[in-house]
Amino acid sequence: MTDATPPAAGSRTPLPLVPGEGEPRLRADAARNRARLLEAAARLAAEHGAANLTMDAVAAAASVGKGTVSRRFGDRTGLLLALLDHHERRLQEAFLAGPPPLGPGADPVQRLLAFGPAVVRHERAHLDMYLAAEPGRRRFTVPANQVRRTHVAVLLRQAGVGVDAELTAYALVGTLDTALVDHLLTERGFPPERLDAGWRDLVTRVVGTRRT
Amino acid sequence: MTDATPPAAGSRTPLPLVPGEGEPRLRADAARNRARLLEAAARLAAEHGAANLTMDAVAAAASVGKGTVSRRFGDRTGLLLALLDHHERRLQEAFLAGPPPLGPGADPVQRLLAFGPAVVRHERAHLDMYLAAEPGRRRFTVPANQVRRTHVAVLLRQAGVGVDAELTAYALVGTLDTALVDHLLTERGFPPERLDAGWRDLVTRVVGTRRT
Question: How many domains does chain B have?
């Protein structure tokens, strides 16, 4: 099992929070090798689109055999999920350890308000990759979504909002689902600002009656 | 195109509201024939599970050739979507024309509060069929979801809630997504009452600051 494999449905393993807590410690050269393959894959995806990414092309671009890519990532979906994880970690660093209002230091409600627009901006920047790796029915259990939900639930609790924080986190993070954002922006033609405003209004209403 | 086919992505066709507005008028014998096939399919799905439903079995149970089933529904997914539509119409009748608080006559906020638990109860009763027909990326454009969103947006406007009703409807109806409900009930082990309470709390918070 590579570190990019999402936990099985119903798995109770701890959330894979930044920076890679609970991952098997790769030996330094293996980690370098993996990073090199991911860089090659990210470059190819940026040039030709994530939908056109193949294991063969990554092997050729990194000057290794296809077997090396397969051993590291399993299959194409495994590679795409690892690549997504690579991008998602930058977003996670921003909301878990970056500057306020997204990161620590700001009021939890301010951090909640900043979270939605940051995720939508991030998804728009990497939309074709998110869509190419779209995990379908696994979408609720992929680590990235667990991290997002945990973050939102923690902020709701910190803000003293008297809600079922876990369930409310599903509702709020669900509005940032990649396929939904793509549907609203591309098929419905909503401007991104409308999504940002909708998120802020929803968060404001949810925290509005908090018991502090 | 059968009347069960969801509109193409980005289609701007009018919503297929109950009772089948905008559908091609089937001749009476064709409509009877179709109803007979759907009854056979519903019976087989109830007996053996929707996941095990085949075109051949429906043809045999209704004593017609497989070609008749194919001409009517296209493929297995078309048949499952038609069957789902059949069930969904009963739910739609309940919230569009049934007794209050779900149907007309009650305060719009009371109707909104009743809507979530009614949908969750309905989905639980037909969960294996909803999951067997799970339309994946098409989930935002299937008619059933458009009808649900329209209903919620109309109630939000009637209640005088000063929100982006259309976008808020995506957020609220998204919490009732079949795959999400299944994930929460089956994989996470949440009791259905927790989902109902979560819906009521979310609606109460959203309408809480309404400008009437």
Answer: 2
Q: Which of B11, B173, B201, B210 to mutate to test the interface with A (most CBs of A within 10 A)?
A: B201
A6 preceded by a cis bond (ω within 30 of 0): no
The confidence score (pLDDT) of residue B99 equals: 96
Is the Cβ pair B175, A180 closer than 8 Å?
Answer: no
Point out the domain boundary residue: A39, A57, A74: A74
**What is the helix (H) or strand (E) element at residue B186, kind and residue range?**
none
- Strand pairing partners for A104? A106
Q: Which of B9, B68, B17 is nearest to B38 (CA)?
A: B68
* pLDDT tens-digit readout, A131-151: 777 666 567 777 778 899 999
Report the first-to-last Cα separation within chain B, whole angstroms. 44
Cα of A146 to nearest chain B Cα, Å: 13
For B198, other C-beta atoms within 10 Å of its C-beta total 22
In order of A115, A147, A156, B155, B209, the CA distances from A162 in angstroms are 20, 21, 8, 25, 17
Least CA distance to A179: which residue of chain B?
Answer: B137
A120 and A164: one domain? yes
Is residue B58 domain-shared with residue B142, that is, in the same domain? no
Q: How far apart are CA B123 and CA B177, in angstroms?
A: 9
Interface with A, mutate which of B166, B170, B184 (most A CBs under 10 A): B170
DSSP SS3 for A99: coil
Q: ipTM greater than 0.85, yes or no?
A: no
Query: Which residue of A lies nearest to B165 if distances are taken between CA atoms?
Result: A198
Assess whether A41 and A137 both reside in one domain: no
- Which residue segment(s) compose the domain that A193 sits in? 83-208
Q: How far is A174 from chain B (nearest CA, A)?
A: 7
How far is Cα A207 from Cα A199, in angstroms, rounded to an integer? Answer: 12
In this model, does residue B203 exceed pLDDT 80? yes
Rounded Cα gap, residues B60 and B68, in angstroms: 11
- On whether residue A56 sits in a domain, the answer given is yes
Instruction: Identify the pLDDT of residue B145.
Output: 84
**Is residue A8 situated within a structural domain?**
no
CB-nearest to B201 from A163, A197, A198 is A163
User: What is the mean predicted confidence (pLDDT) over B138-160?
Assistant: 87
Q: Using only C-alpha atoms, what is the Rg of chain B?
A: 18
B104: β partners: B106
> What is the token pair recorded at A158?
């910190």
